[in-house]
Design brief:
The complex is a heterodimer.
Chain A: E1 3-8, E2 10-11, E3 14-15, H1 17-29, E4 32-37, H2 45-50, E5 55-58, H3 67-80, E6 87-91, H4 94-107, E7 111-115, E8 117-120, E9 125-131, E10 136-142, E11 148-152, E12 168-171, E13 184-190, E14 203-207, H5 217-226, E15 230-233, H6 235-239, E16 260-264, H7 270-273, E17 281-286, E18 299-302, H8 305-319
Parallel strand pairs in A: 1-4, 1-6, 4-5, 5-12, 6-11, 7-11, 14-15, 14-16, 16-17, 17-18
Antiparallel strand pairs in A: 2-3, 8-9, 9-10
Chain B: E1 3-6, E2 9-11, E3 32-34, H1 36-52, E4 57-63, H2 69-77, E5 81-86, H3 95-106, E6 113-117, H4 128-136, E7 140-150, E8 153-159, E9 163-170, E10 173-177, H5 189-195, E11 200-203, E12 222-229, E13 237-240, H6 245-255
Parallel strand pairs in B: 1-4, 1-6, 4-5, 5-11, 6-10, 7-10
Antiparallel strand pairs in B: 2-3, 7-8, 8-9
Helix pairs in contact in B: 2-5, 3-4
Classes of the chains: A alpha/beta, B alpha/beta.
Chain lengths: ~325, ~260
C-alpha cells in the first residue's frame, strides 16, 4: 500500500501514545507514513519521525478553536488538491472522532470504527471490530475507491520506535470554516493531576455497582494509589453519576490493557469486559459466585468488597 | 428555545442481539426501546426548555419498521413531539447514512440546539453527532457534561483527556451529551398517558429527498470480509473469602512483582 496518514494528537509537547501506536502499525502496512497535526508541527517532528512519519502536515496553532472542523477541513482541502493517502487512521479519542466524523462527510466516505486490528487485504486495508461484547470479530473493508477512514481503539498495537530521523514539517492550511468553526474554548480545566493515565497505567483498580454507594469509591482510589495505578469504573456507576465518564472502562469508555486489573464489585457486563479482557492478569472480587467476571479472572475472590478491599489496603499500608 | 434531540431505538441490551447471517448487519426485528444513552440528552433538553420558559423539544429518530416504543418513552418524560423516519430501505444503514437521514429530518424542525448522545449503546461508532453537524453546516461541541444556555449561545463543559474545556458556541449548534451527567426523570403516569396523544410525524426517505441508494447496507460503501468468534479467555483460580483472601491477592501481586 502507498501512503497512510495518521492523525497525531499531543498534549504538553508530547505525542499521545495512541498516535505512536498508529504510526507503528501504519509503517508495517504502508510504504509511506505521514502524520497530520492540528497545531504546531516543529515541536513534535522528532518524536513523530522516530516512530515512522517522514512528513508531518501541520495546521499551525489552532488558537481557541476546536480540532474537529479545522483539521477535517484542512485534510479535505489537501486531499481534494491532490494529496491522496490510501487511508487515514484516527485514534478513538475525543478529537479523533470529531475529525473523522467531519472528514467523512466532506469526502462522502464512511468510517470504519472501533477497529482493534488492521491488516492488508486484497488491495485495501481491512479493519476488525469486536461486537457483542467482544465475543465476535467482524472484519470490514471499503468497497469504494476513495480514502479509507479508520477509527482505531487505543492499545490495539504496541508503539515502537523505527529509528527514523525527524519528520519534515509541511504546512497544512486551514480554509475558512464559516459557521462550523464558531465554537471557542474559553477555559481549560485539569481534573486529574496525580497518578498514571487510566489507559496507560500498568495497574488498574476498578469499582462497580457492588460498592453500594458513591462514597465507597474512595477505597478504589486508595487501592489504586497504593499500587501505583489508576482508578477505573464500570458504566453502571458512571451512569449513576458516582464518578466522571473519564474513569469509565468498557466498550463505551476506555479500553485498558494493564499488567494487572483489579475488578471490585463488578459483575462483568459484556460492555465492561470488552474494555478490560485484554489485561495480562485479572483479579476479581465479587460476592456473587455466578458473576460473569469470574469466567475471565485469573484470581477470583468470592467475597464482600467492603471486607476484602479494606483488609488489602491495610496490609499494603503495613508493608510501607 | 427549540431543541431537537436525536433518539435511537435499540434492542434491549439485556437481550443481546445477533447478526443477520445474510447481510452481517444487526438484526432489529424485535421490539425496540429507547437507548438509555439518549435519556440524558432528553433530560438535558427538557431542563433547558423549562429554564428558557418557552420553546419545544422535538425528538428525531430513524427506524426500519415504524417502531415508536422508544419515542413514546421520551415523550412520556416530557418531550413535545417526534419525527420518525421509517423506511424499509433503511435496514443496515451505517453511521454516515444515518447522519444524512437525521440531518434531513432535523431540517424539518425549527431548532436552536440539536442534542444527541455521544454514542449509542449498540453500534457505538460515536461519529453521528459530528457528521450531522457537518451535514447541516453547524458548529458542534461533543462530549458535553454540562450545558448552559445564554442569549443566542451555549456554554458547554466538554470532556477532555485531562479534565474538561469550557466551550462557548453560538446557536444553532449540535451538542453531544455524555452519559451519566444528569439524572433522567422517570415518566409520571400523567406523562405516559399524555405521550399517547402527542404529535408523531412519520416520514419516509423520499419525503426527505433522499434516494434509496444513499442508505441501507448498499449505500454504506463497505463490505464485510470475515465474521469469526473471538478467542475466549480461560477462568483461573476461584477462592471464597474466609477473612484471608487479601493475603492470596498480595501473594499474586508479589509473584507478579507488583509489590
Amino acid at each position: 500500500m502507498g501512503t497512510i496518514w495518521v492523525y497525531a494528537e499531543a498534549s504538553g509537547g508530547k505525542v499521545a501514545s495512541i498516535s505512536l501506536e498508529l504510526l507503528t502499525r501504519a509503517r508495517e502496512l504502508a510504504d509511506t507514513v505521514e502524520a497530520v497535526v492540528g497545531g504546531d508541527g516543529e515541536a513534535l517532528a522528532a518524536e513523530l519521525g522516530a516512530h515512522g512519519a517522514t512528513t508531518v502536515h501541520a495546521t499551525g496553532d489552532l488558537g481557541d478553536g476546536l480540532a474537529g472542523p479545522a483539521v477535517a477541513s484542512a485534510m479535505a482541502t489537501a486531499i481534494e488538491g491532490g494529496a491522496a493517502p490510501d487511508a487515514v487512521l484516527f485514534g478513538t479519542t475525543y478529537d479523533g472522532r470529531d475529525v473523522a466524523g467531519r472528514l467523512s462527510v466532506k469526502l462522502g466516505a464512511p468510517v470504519i470504527t472501533n477497529v482493534v486490528e488492521l491488516e492488508q487485504g486484497d488491495g485495501s486495508l481491512v479493519g476488525t471490530e469486536p461486537v457483542f461484547g467482544g465475543t465476535v470479530n467482524v472484519s470490514t473493508r471499503f468497497s469504494g475507491s476513495g480514502v479509507g477512514l479508520f477509527l482505531v481503539r487505543p492499545k490495539s498495537f504496541a508503539a515502537e520506535e523505527s529509528g527514523g530521523g525527524p519528520a519534515a514539517v509541511a504546512a497544512l492550511p486551514v480554509p475558512d470554516l464559516g459557521a462550523t468553526g464558531a465554537a471557542r474554548v474559553v477555559d481549560r480545566f485539569a481534573e486529574e493531576a496525580s497518578g498514571p493515565k487510566l489507559d496507560e497505567a500498568g495497574i488498574v483498580v476498578s469499582g462497580g455497582r457492588g460498592l453500594g454507594e458513591a462514597e465507597k469509591y474512595s477505597m478504589i482510589e486508595d487501592l489504586a494509589k497504593l499500587l501505583g495505578g489508576a482508578a477505573g469504573a464500570s458504566r453502571a456507576i458512571v451512569d449513576a453519576g458516582w464518578v466522571p465518564y473519564s474513569h469509565q472502562v468498557g466498550q463505551t469508555g476506555k479500553v485498558v490493557k494493564p499488567d494487572v486489573y483489579v475488578a471490585c464489585g463488578i459483575s462483568g457486563a459484556t460492555q465492561h469486559m470488552v474494555g478490560m479482557k485484554g489485561s495480562k492478569n485479572i483479579i476479581a472480587i465479587n460476592k456473587d459466585a455466578e458473576a460473569p467476571i469470574f469466567g475471565i479472572a485469573d484470581l477470583g475472590v468470592v467475597g464482600d468488597v467492603h471486607k476484602v478491599v479494606p483488609k488489602l489496603i491495610e496490609a499494603l499500608q503495613a508493608r510501607g | 428555545m427549540d431543541i431537537v434531540v436525536c433518539v435511537k431505538q435499540i434492542p434491549d441490551p439485556a437481550d443481546p442481539g445477533e447478526l443477520d447471517p445474510a447481510t452481517n448487519t444487526l438484526k432489529r426485528d424485535m421490539k425496540l426501546i429507547m437507548d438509555e444513552s439518549d435519556s440524558y440528552g432528553v433530560e438535558m433538553a427538557l431542563q433547558l426548555r423549562d429554564a428558557a420558559g418557552e420553546g419545544e423539544v422535538t425528538l428525531v429518530s430513524m427506524a426500519p419498521h415504524e417502531e415508536v416504543n422508544g419515542l413514546r418513552s421520551a415523550l412520556a418524560m416530557g418531550a413535545d413531539k417526534a419525527i420518525l423516519v421509517s423506511d424499509e430501505t433503511l435496514a443496515g444503514t451505517d453511521a454516515l447514512g444515518t447522519a444524512r437521514v437525521l440531518a434531513a429530518a432535523i431540517g424539518r424542525a425549527q431548532a436552536d440546539l440539536i442534542l444527541a448522545a455521544t454514542e449509542s449503546s449498540d453500534g457505538y461508532t460515536g461519529t453521528v453527532p459530528e457528521q450531522v453537524a457537518e451535514l447541516l453546516g453547524l458548529p458542534s461541541v461533543t462530549f458535553a457534561k454540562e450545558i448552559q444556555a445564554e442569549s443566542g449561545e451555549v456554554l458547554v463543559k466538554r470532556q477532555t483527556e485531562a479534565g474538561y474545556d469550557e466551550v462557548r458556541c453560538p446557536l444553532p449548534a449540535v451538542v453531544s451529551v455524555t452519559a451519566g451527567v444528569v439524572e433522567p426523570r422517570y415518566p409520571s403516569f400523567k406523562g405516559i398517558m399524555a405521550a399517547k396523544s402527542k404529535p408523531m410525524d412519520q416520514v419516509g426517505i423520499s419525503d426527505l429527498g433522499i434516494s434509496a441508494d444513499q442508505v441501507g447496507w448498499a449505500g454504506g460503501g463497505q463490505e464485510i470480509t470475515d465474521v469469526s468468534p473471538a478467542p475466549e479467555r480461560e477462568a483461573g483460580e476461584i477462592i471464597t473469602d474466609e477473612g484471608d483472601a487479601h493475603e492470596r491477592i498480595i501473594a499474586l501481586l508479589e509473584e507478579l512483582r507488583i509489590v
